């Protein structure tokens, strides 16, 4: 890797990944090849998770509402007892997903590995980084549609119909705009209105979660913020989008994949010229002073290592 690329990557330092209690495998989610397509909403709408409490697992001080697991998520509800709770999910792909929920708060946790059997283990903070086991259970998940986890908000991509970012996404284009038009417009808006925040990159702490409306209003962010903002905006346009977390070279990084109906998952891509896709990585694009050099780098899949999909 050239010195210029190495220097650029150092500027793109992301957050420290959340602490996990067991080693997580690496892999990449993709469409199952079932021929299933994402649901179409007319008029367009922002999906809102619900936790009616009709079906739950666990007990005080942590309850998991699994009433809507067919929609691709569960909701973890933590009691206000002053402790942080940790929920770990793993499926057949071997990837361990770890989520932390503060005292008195709730979090939407997606089933990003798709339908199947999930092993769920829950813990409660006892002292600093020490956690004690609460309960564990296997959960059978059968998704109504395999794309739903990538259309709903979750703890990492947190948005509502009232989020300014979602309102903006719905206002940028007519409802009958094509998916490619929507993706290109959102991509161009984010990369032209958000600049890389080097101070934040140098001081970001473990456990950081993006605030998409703050990124939009301040016009600054790290690659995690870029990816989360674009993911929220595209999901609100009924375009399945994966927030991908891993490495660019040997630096922590985040990017996005999108699904185009009739074409499939487009990994790290943004535009289609009839023959090939160009790499989708909004952080690199927004901060490129050497377009030819950057396009050469982000066009090489070997430079990306995926760890988690959110």
From TrEMBL:
Which parts of the sequence belong to the Transglutaminase-like domain? 215-272
InterPro entries on file: Papain-like_cys_pep_sf, Transglutaminase-like
Q: Name one Pfam family in it.
A: Transglut_core
Q: Per the database entry, which stretches of residues form a coiled coil?
A: none
This chain belongs to the protein called: Transglutaminase domain-containing protein
Show the taxonomic lineage: Bacteria, Bacillati, Bacillota, Clostridia, Lachnospirales
């Amino acid at each position: 890797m050239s010195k210029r690329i190495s220097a650029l990557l150092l500027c793109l330092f992301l957050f420290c990944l959340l602490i996990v209690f067991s080693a997580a495998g690496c892999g990449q989610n993709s469409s199952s090849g079932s021929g299933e397509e994402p649901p179409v909403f007319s008029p367009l709408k922002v999906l809102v998770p619900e936790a009616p409490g009709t079906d739950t697992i666990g007990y005080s001080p942590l309850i998991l509402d699994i009433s809507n697991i067919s929609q691709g998520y569960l909701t973890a509800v933590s009691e206000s007892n002053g402790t942080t709770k940790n929920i770990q999910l793993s499926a057949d792909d071997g990837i361990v997903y770890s989520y932390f929920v503060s005292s008195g708060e709730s979090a939407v946790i997606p089933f990003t590995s798709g339908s199947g059997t999930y092993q769920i283990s829950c813990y409660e903070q006892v002292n600093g980084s020490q956690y004690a086991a609460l309960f564990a259970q296997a959960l059978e998940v059968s998704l109504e549609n395999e794309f739903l986890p990538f259309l709903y908000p979750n703890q990492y991509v947190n948005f509502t119909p009232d989020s300014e970012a979602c309102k903006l996404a719905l206002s940028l284009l007519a409802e009958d705009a094509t998916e490619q038009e929507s993706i290109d417009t959102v991509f161009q808006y984010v990369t032209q209105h958000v600049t890389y925040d080097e101070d934040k990159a140098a001081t970001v702490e473990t456990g950081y979660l993006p605030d998409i409306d703050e990124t939009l209003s301040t016009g600054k962010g790290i690659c995690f913020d870029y990816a989360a903002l674009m993911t929220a905006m595209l999901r609100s346009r009924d375009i399945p989008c994966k927030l991908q977390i891993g490495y660019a070279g040997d630096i922590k990084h985040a990017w996005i994949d999108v699904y185009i109906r009739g074409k499939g998952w487009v990994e790290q891509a943004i535009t289609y010229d009839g023959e090939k896709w160009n790499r989708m990585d909004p952080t690199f694009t927004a901060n490129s002073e050497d377009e030819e050099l950057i396009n050469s780098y982000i066009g090489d899949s070997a430079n990306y290592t995926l760890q988690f999909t959110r």
